[in-house]
Amino acid sequence: MSVPSWLKRLLQTLISLVALAALTLGVLVYAFGMHVEFAGSGMRPMFSFDNPDEHFADLEANRSQHYSRHLPPGPLAGDTDEPSRPYWTDFRGPARDGRYNQTRVTTEWPVEGLTPKWRQPIGGGYASFVVADKRAFTIEQRRSQEVVAAYELETGRELWTHAWDAYFDEAMGGAGPRATPTWNRGRLYALGATGRLWSLDAKTGDVLWERNILADSQATNLDWAMSGAPLVVDNLVVLQPGGTDGWSVVAYHRETGDVVWHALDDVQSYTSPMLMTLAGERQLVVVTAERVVGLTLEGHLLWEYPWKISIVPNIAQPVRVGADRLFLSASYGRGAAVIELTSPQPPFTVETVWENTRMKNKFGSSVLHDGYLYGLDESILACIDPRTGEQMWKGGRYGYGQLLLAGDHLIVLTERGELALVRATPEGHDEIARSPGIEGKTWNIPALADGYLLIRNAREMAAFDLSMR
């Protein structure tokens, strides 16, 4: 049986098109440095043109203009004799809840967009910033090293760095550390993607102590690397390495790095430990790969609630929505729930108040304002009532970005690096402003301190002055 001539021509055309597409792709990749990344959905490709060697050369040239490593940095811009009160010292803010209430910020954004106070290249990774003493701190990947860096808040000038050999990379997220550092009483606690934990002098970058939390707990790294920000409570630094035999959660001494206690046997998640008061009990709230637990500050179990995603360990942070209630959310088909600690004293009994699929936080976490929760349901902004689980509205596509609450408004950093200002009201989606931010895929959570909005991704960092001064 002979093949029809029309089918031969069709096959020849298809082969020619495939060959042309392959040739075009090769030219774009090798001649123009095109990279193919995946959006938060894991399905849609995102294309960027960025040669890594050129990027790091630009970064190094930029930093060489900031200061000479052989000379001490000059005084910080705006330095006065008045002491500065540290504010945004933790992942997602003082209470790790994504809420900014230090000062009023402007909601009158120019039609043409916000003008950055400064903008410059940065190393890779998905950490956010913390801010204290007019300095902004983050952790990034520069070539084959992880680097903790301190920047002058007002100018972006690099003040010091601490680097070590470490490199973590994976196909979807790319290279770099994931966990945001924590500032506490003049010290910075930074966790690298491969488990290296550093205590540094926040003024100088000098090493005070170091541990490897995966080695200590004999735990295996996660597929997308260690992501939980160190939590400093009293004299403890609490992390979740995920080891067995009672080494899932570990508390180190803040000043010495000695192990104080370790507890549980759960595989770790991508969430960060939190300090909360629930049912009148000051406690650690930890989301593991399998459940949510409350622990005493001595590491003893107060309560537990099963909360597991079938595909990956948990990512989104829990939100306290009442004196004894906690909101949980996850993507990958899981949805959201509010749980309640019902007994008056430990050990607490936990019950489900409601559970549905109307708020599926994936990479980002929700925020609470005036009794309502706002968050990205997958990639669309939504508002729900935590008392009932009712969805008040859903609207506005921002990709798998991040958001903060400032006053009565949400500041949304989209997956493509744009900034949006949305009213935090249960009455409906109301975006009142949008502005260019940074370029490229952006999964990093913004930070807000002293009126400065700090944003970054794996290529670029920028600051915007939103203060009312």
Descriptive account of the structure:
With 469 residues, the protein is mainly β. Among the domains are: 5-32; 123-268, Beta Barrel (Lipocalin). The chain is 10% helix and 40% strand. It has helices spanning 5-32, 52-64, 213-217, and strands at residues 34-38, 45-49, 99-100, 118-121, 130-132, 135-142, 145-152, 158-165, 169-170, 174-175, 182-184, 187-191, 196-201, 207-212, 231-233, 236-239, 249-253, 259-263, 274-278, 281-287, 291-295, 301-306, 319-322, 325-330, 335-341, 350-356, 367-369, 372-377, 380-384, 391-397, 402-406, 409-413, 419-423, 431-435, 447-449, 452-456, 460-465. A five-stranded mixed beta sheet has the order 3-31-32-33-34, with no helix packed on it. The longest helix is centred in the N-terminal third of the chain and has 28 residues, at 5-32. The protein is globular, with a radius of gyration of 23 Å. The N and C termini lie far apart (83 Å). The model has no long low-confidence stretch (mean pLDDT 92).
Number of contiguous helices: 3
CATH topology of the domain at 123-268: Lipocalin
Output mean pLDDT: 92
Based on secondary structure, the structural category is mainly beta
Distance between the termini: 83 Å
Shape: globular
CATH-derived architecture of the domain at 123-268: Beta Barrel
